[in-house]
Here is the input.
Amino acid sequence: MDEIQNPFSPGAGAPPPELVGRDPILEEARILLGRVKRKRPEKSMLLTGLRGVGKTVLLNEIERMAAKEEYRTISIEAHENKALGPLIAPHLWKLLFELNRIAGLGNRVKRGLSVLRSFIGALKVTVNDVTIGLDIDPERGSADSGDLEIDLPNLFVAIAEAAEERGSAIAILIDEIQYFNQKELGALIMAMHKIQQRQLPLVLIGAGLPILPGLAGESKSYAERLFNFPNIGALSETDASFALQEPAQAQGVTFEQSALDEIFRLTKGYPYFLQEWGYQTWNYAKGTPITLNMVRIATNRVIERLDKNFFRVRFDRLIPSEKAFLRAMAKLGNGSYLMGDVANILNVKITSLGPLRAKLIKKGMIYSPAHGEIAFTVPLFDEFMIRAIPNLKS
Here is the structure.
């Protein structure tokens, strides 16, 4: 088997050779982009799902769709320790200057630059070289209060009006959006509320963990009226088989059905794991067809790689008490877990686990699928804890 011709692509945000099972989400995005460009009201989108389901891949695909529709796009990734203002300001600065180059400096583009200058000044930080590059007077009283929930909506409106003046539209795409704090998330929601009220050509498409709808609702109760929250889950067995078989066949290689069945059993249909198993199995196979035995031989290498990279990097960010909490969850088996059962494993009172639970949710390790329940945000993490961390104690 030629490893250079290996069609599979395990990696963070790496596009798979076949993007299957996501047509309804992409169709929803197509309608959103089309309607907003034509000044028709439509909810923006916040994609939710566990790690490894392909949210970033979908964001990238939607960005390509937006570019084809002649949108100006901004793509950013939220971080735990970086505020929204300094993160987004350089991108807005670049966007406004792109709009400026379309046909000279119009009134609304010029005003957008002035409002952005005010916004940056209110941040009281230097955003790369933006404060130097914007040699334009700030617009006093616009986006300069220092309160993000006041300033960001005014800034978004000014920028959307500048795009409208140029006959353009803007798509802002934000990955890992759950890392913004409540005030930042609230400011984004308020900004989109104002945009929708004025039917301006700007959409927000974000992606985050399953806690995102709850965070948005807690921040602003009307969030559900502004956004759709499509859930991105694992692939069906049929789609998972297609995602493996089609790219292989394009290279003159096939999988035996038993091999496909085994990979689905091991991966549970999660796209990242499908790519990892497909990649390693291809490299271990001696020829076509790829057999069940080849999958089993490759599985040891796959698990070694996942334990060392995908799982371990998340585990090593935790303090001992957090690790013990997750180990107790894993001991209960697959699925979601009752907090009371976790407390029994740890031999502590359930009330004492509240702070630990909150920290692990904030770190993106667990979420609450229902009241009183918790679950891992990383698929197969329970198997990693049992396999690789067998004797962990709090």
About this structure: The beta strands are 44-48, 71-77, 169-175, 202-208, 227-228, 337-338, 366-367, 373-376. Residues 292-315 form the longest helix (24 residues). The mean pLDDT is 89.
